[in-house]
Design goal:
This protein is α/β, with parallel strands linked by helices. It folds into two domains: 214 residues, UDP-n-acetylglucosamine1-carboxyvinyl-transferase, Chain (Alpha-beta prism); 196 residues, Enolpyruvate transferase domain (UDP-n-acetylglucosamine1-carboxyvinyl-transferase, Chain). The chain is built from 13 helices and 23 strands. The strands form six sheets. A four-stranded mixed beta sheet has the order 2-15-17-16. Strand 6, helix 3 and strand 7 form a beta-alpha-beta unit. The two termini are 30 Å apart. Bound molecules: shikimate-3-phosphate (S3P). Shikimate-3-phosphate binds next to helix 6. This is 3-phosphoshikimate 1-carboxyvinyltransferase.
């Protein structure tokens, strides 16, 4: 396995970055383009491996998709334009691809099989397949349907009312995508508010749905119409530079065109609560809110992160853990068991890898406790094939006293192929 030495002791980080497209919205723009009628033109599309897998899967279902860099055009023919694939659909590392596609395939009257990489093979799928079975789809997979490979023979769906057992936007989205193809109404009731990109996309593509607090209702059989989608920058990618700017001395970074959907801005709220010198400017609304975020080196204090805040920053917890090592006092993260079923078990990988760098951090059943402020030392660490762990460790190396070497750096291309170019452009 390749081990890559990382930069040590950045003097300061200065400049501005155009943050690459949001991963969740990029996936959905291809999917909605494929199930709508007519042409969908997508700009600022994220060219990370995960989103390219979504394109490859829809091409196997017969959808014509042109993609060159950050521009993609999808020629949708509605749900009925999807055809039985002659090959297995391989989602690679992408949980969003497999779970949302299951919702789409559940309504299609043909046979399809889905596989992914080693990490996908360990991620739970019955949370999605169980409600889809209740809608009327035939789905099975390894270990009683829990793991890939998963086979679907869809069609003949009838709307259901379903109370989500976990706070998961992927599960909610899969049920809504199946509900769009079902007879009658489908109701999803969330436990906590999760990212609402699917709900916004349904409306952006001309569909209707009702949202009342944690309850979402969608009618089956609605036609969707192709449209233009300008993907906002990914706040989950911006998060690495927000934290880098806050912890590296003498820094000031402007991150442009960052998605500011309130279901995703937990990182901003928590950083402010911890004392970060963070400003949001130039806020504007497309079908998703966006703005520019400025971060300066900050004096930070520990905090407690729990409850409804967790889904609003679930993907940012690895980088928040690093931030907490550089804050005075204790930071407690709880109610975050979902971290155990991400690309890796992120409670274990975050705690283990940060300990290797000299951090004082311990795992709990549903999160972690971090003791700051701690001078990180350096050492050899691994992404464990998890993009967000890899980027967190790269940012950690900036405040380590000695050299840090990162194993399995390639994983970062899943969500941020230009990450190191962007980082280098800020190093002064
Ligand atoms: C996502 C939802 C979240 C998140 C993932 C993307 C989405 O997963 O962690 O990176 O695009 O819907 P869960 O739904 O499993 O919480």
């Amino acid at each position: 396995m390749k081990t890559t030495p990382l930069a040590i002791n950045a003097a300061k980080l200065q400049g501005h970055l155009q943050i690459p497209g949001d991963k969740s919205i990029s996936h959905r723009s291809i999917m909605f383009g494929a199930i709508a009628n007519g042409t969908t033109t997508i700009t600022n599309f994220l060219t990370g491996d995960d989103c390219l897998r979504t394109i490859a899967c829809f091409r196997k279902l017969g959808v014509v998709i042109e993609q060159e860099g950050e521009r993609a055009v999808v020629f949708g023919k509605g749900f009925t334009g999807l055809n039985e694939p002659s090959e297995v659909l391989d989602v690679g590392n992408s949980g969003t691809t497999i779970r949302l596609m299951l919702g789409i395939l559940a309504g299609r009257p043909f046979f399809s099989t889905l596989i992914g990489d080693e990490s996908i093979g360990k991620r739970p799928m019955t949370r999605v397949t169980k409600p889809l079975l209740s809608l009327g789809a035939n789905i099975d997979g390894r270990s009683g349907g829990e793991y890939t490979p998963i086979a679907v023979r869809g069609g003949g769906l009838t709307g259901i009312e379903y109370r989500l057992p976990v706070a998961s936007a992927q599960v909610k989205s899969a049920i809504l995508l199946a509900g769009l193809q079902a007879d009658g109404e489908t109701t999803v009731i969330e436990t906590s508010k999760t990212r609402d990109h699917t709900e916004r996309m349904i409306q952006h593509f001309g569909g209707k749905l009702e949202v009342d607090g944690l309850t979402i209702k969608v009618q089956g059989g609605q036609p969707l119409q192709g449209t233009n989608v300008e993907v906002p920058g990914d706040i989950s990618s911006a998060a690495f530079f927000l934290v880098a700017g806050a912890i590296v001395p003498n820094s000031e970074i402007m991150l442009k065109n960052v998605g500011l959907n309130p279901t995703r801005t937990g990182i901003i709220d928590v950083m402010r609560e911890m004392g970060a010198d963070l400003q949001v400017k130039n806020e504007r609304e497309q079908f998703e809110p966006v703005g520019d975020v400025i971060i300066k080196t900050s004096t930070l204090k520990g905090t407690t992160i729990e409850g409804d805040m967790i889904p609003r920053l679930i993907d940012e917890i690895p980088i928040i853990a690093l931030l907490a090592t550089q804050a005075e006092g204790v930071t407690i993260i709880k109610d975050a068991e979902e971290l155990k079923v991400k690309e890796t078990n992120r409670i274990d990988t975050v705690v283990r890898e940060l300990q290797k760098l000299g951090a004082k951090i311990e795992s709990t059943n549903d999160g972690m406790i971090i003791y700051g402020k701690q001078q990180l030392l350096g050492g050899t660490v691994s992404s464990h094939g998890d993009h967000r762990i890899g980027m967190m460790l790269a940012v950690a190396s900036l405040v380590c006293k000695e050299q840090t070497n990162l194993e399995n750096i390639e994983a970062i291309s899943v969500s941020y192929p230009n990450f190191f170019n962007h980082l280098e452009s800020l190093l002064k």
